Amino acid sequence: MSLESEFRLTDHAGVPLAARELIWDVFFRSRGRGVTLTYHYPWMDSQDDIRCLTINWIGDVSSPCVATLIIKKMVVAQIGIVGLIGFVCVHRDYRGRKLSAALLDSARSSAERDGMVALLLWTSQPRIYENIGFRVDLVELFGSVCRPAVDAGGADLIETRRSIAVSESHEFGVPAFATATLVYRSRNATLYACRVGTSLSLVQWSGSVSDVIEVIRLAFPTEWQINVAQADPLLDALSKQRFSLKLVPATYRMVLPCNRIGDLRVPPIGFLQRI
Q: Please, what's the b/e burial string for 195-230 (b: 16 or more CB within 10 A of its CB; e: otherwise)?
């Protein structure tokens, strides 16, 4: 898709200051949230495997970036290199001029040139991206979970609780909607949860389903929230153990194949690895 003559599209290694300012304004300042971009997304200070596309309006030097998106490269086992797309945004004064479509079209060309097998993004509005060629391949749910009553007494149970280490984690940064990322570690499982106001939202975990649920039972509050793929086995296990779940479709993962012939099946990408 060609841009109007007064616009210029540029491909950057890393995220330039002008793009950061627009991202901060659209995703943080306008929503009354956020600490700093580096606090939430420490990888923005690196140029390694990070591309940023910007659109400038040539006629206004005081507004150096009117639209942007970021592509973060990731190696996926048995698939190859994929590009994670995020922070697609347009300055409010320039919306309705198909700038986001121009960015995404350029992102596809960049991915094909760099040998990526696919571009991935997460959105609550899939129709916007279907017109550009993306397709939904995974549905994610969000909602509340209430655990059943458990026995709070007993020396063995107290000792088990003590074996779970809880700390703040800055390994992956902090999602825009959250104020902190907490990590819960037992001997056999690791859980990441985001603090959102007074709530706790489970976003990523590793370990067997039974070990994950054991940490939840011992360390999580009575009611909490979860972001989870629709087909994740943790959901069925929670239901069988009489946890109450109230979940709705919230996010759609969309894929655009680039340099891949045939069926492309991308495994789940950790919530905190995305952008």
A: eeeeebbbbbbebebebbbbbbbbbbeeebbbbbbe
Residues 83 and 149 in one domain: no
Q: What is the CATH number of the domain that holds 65?
A: 3.40.630.30
The Cα 253–Cα 274 span in angstroms is 11
Decide: 121 and 107 in contact? Cβ < 8 Å.
no
Q: Which residue has the tokens 């391949």?
A: 137
pLDDT of residue 161: 57
CA distance 67 to 52: 11
Establish if 16 belongs to a structural domain: yes
Residue 20, SS3?
Answer: helix
Banded model confidence at residue 61, pLDDT cuts 50, 70, 90 = low
* 215: phi then psi, degrees, rounded to nearest 5: -65, -40
Give the whole-angstrom CA distance, residue 109 versus residue 75.
19
On the question of pLDDT at 11 being above 60, the answer is yes
Mapped onto helix, strand or coil, the DSSP state of residue 208 is coil
How distant, in Å, are the alpha carbons of 3, 44, 150, 207 from that of 41?
A: 30, 6, 37, 25
